[in-house]
Amino acid sequence: KKESKRFFVEKNNLLQIGDIPAGDSGEAENLISAAEWAIKNYPSQYFGLVLWNHGTGPYDPDLFNYNYNKQLKPNDFFFFDRENKKISINRNIEFFDMLHTPQERGICFDDTTRNYLSSKKLTTALSSICKLRSGEKIDIIMMDACLMAGIEIAHDCSKYAKILTASEEVVLGP
Fold first, then answer.
1. pLDDT truncated to tens, each residue of the chain (174 aa)?
2. Contact by Cβ (8 Å): 4, 20
3. Pairing verdict, β 48-52 and 138-144
4. 88 forms bridges with which residues in the sheet?
């Protein structure tokens, strides 16, 4: 069952706030609406935005027939390096060959609708959120998703955020 939830975060406590209809995480309007709700209902000196889910870095998933139903396993991207006794990224897999194309990026995949935020949708949402904040930049954007710390994403976010934190590598899910 698809759900959307809002939480109020306190020290050592998460409080779910109200029931809301499930939204499509791949639609800019839903991100804008969520930010608008937070800005109006919980005004604050600082505003942070966390985008969580899969990230594809600098390529458009549709160009590579992204398989939304494929369950990736950590072993697909990582291996245990016995010499260093650490988990390392497997740079010998075909996936990394796709990451260096000058196409659109994607984040916040919706497994139900097969939609995602392309770089165009993301910048549309970020621009609108800044307008909701009277033109103020977002204080920090955090992307808990693979491959989103490339120069393309950083450039797009620099117009709308003071700080961006993201991973330039794949993120080990577990």
1. 677 888 888 899 999 987 788 889 999 999 999 999 999 999 999 999 999 888 877 655 555 455 544 445 556 677 788 888 887 777 666 554 444 343 446 888 887 888 889 888 999 999 999 999 999 999 999 999 888 888 888 999 999 999 999 988 877 655
2. yes
3. parallel
4. 79
